[in-house]
Amino acid sequence: GYRSRAAYKLKQLDDLENVIESGDTVVDLGAAPGGWLQVAAENVGPEGTVIGVDLQRIKPFDDEALNERVETVRGDMTEDRTRERVIDAAGGPVDAVVSDMAPNMSGEYSLDQARSLHLARQAFETALELLDTGGDFVVKVFQGPDVEEFRADVEEEFRYVRATSPKASRDESSEIYFVGKGRITAPVRPGD
Ligand code: SAM
């Protein structure tokens, strides 16, 4: 079984948009407790790699075959040093960056929404640092002010962007996922 109900959201997104393929290198932001990691590790197969990042520790999986494909980084994605560790772990351009990051809920929607958008923008920056040409990006954001502007920024970097709310998340009605398909330009590598 999966560690989180969220696992089914990534399954649905991937069924619709094919973001994770066999042999891929995938970076999963906000990965704890690890449901998306399980789905991603299954889909990349034995030749693939998934790097999971979270503030929280991610426990190893019972399935050794999955553990062999998964690397975890514990840290805060709003900090440069965490981003640098993720870039090191990736060791080069990656095929997909997926982010299910969400803030700790304060209960005040406007605050939670602003924090969610900030995390989504951090994920986008990381995607621009890491994604190979043609690579895909998935990001969660809570609906609200400035989300359309964020979408427009993502649209500039990908062939197309689709907004979806997977069935598995309809009861959390404020969240949507943007899927950016096919990064247009190659990343600038250190030294270029
Ligand atoms: N996709 C996960 C799964 O399937 O198990 C569930 C992710 S949960 C909805 C959101 C996660 O984002 C939390 O584990 C939280 O710790 C993480 N998160 C929030 N802010 C973060 C940050 N600044 N850096 C890294 N992770 C963060």
TrEMBL record:
Active site annotation, chain numbering: K140 (proton acceptor)
Catalytic activity: uridine(2552) in 23S rRNA + S-adenosyl-L-methionine = 2'-O-methyluridine(2552) in 23S rRNA + S-adenosyl-L-homocysteine + H(+)
Coiled-coil residue windows: none
Single GO molecular function: rRNA (uridine-2'-O-)-methyltransferase activity
Keyword annotations: Cytoplasm, Methyltransferase, rRNA processing, S-adenosyl-L-methionine, Transferase
Keyword Hydrolase: no
EC annotation from Swiss-Prot or TrEMBL: 2.1.1.166
Signal peptide feature range: none
Binding site for S-adenosyl-L-methionine: G34, W36, D54, D76, D100
GO cellular component: cytoplasm
Family: Belongs to the class I-like SAM-binding methyltransferase superfamily. RNA methyltransferase RlmE family.
Function: Specifically methylates the uridine in position 2552 of 23S rRNA at the 2'-O position of the ribose in the fully assembled 50S ribosomal subunit.
Name of the protein described by the UniProt record: Ribosomal RNA large subunit methyltransferase E
Native species: Natrarchaeobaculum aegyptiacum
Gene encoding the protein: rlmE
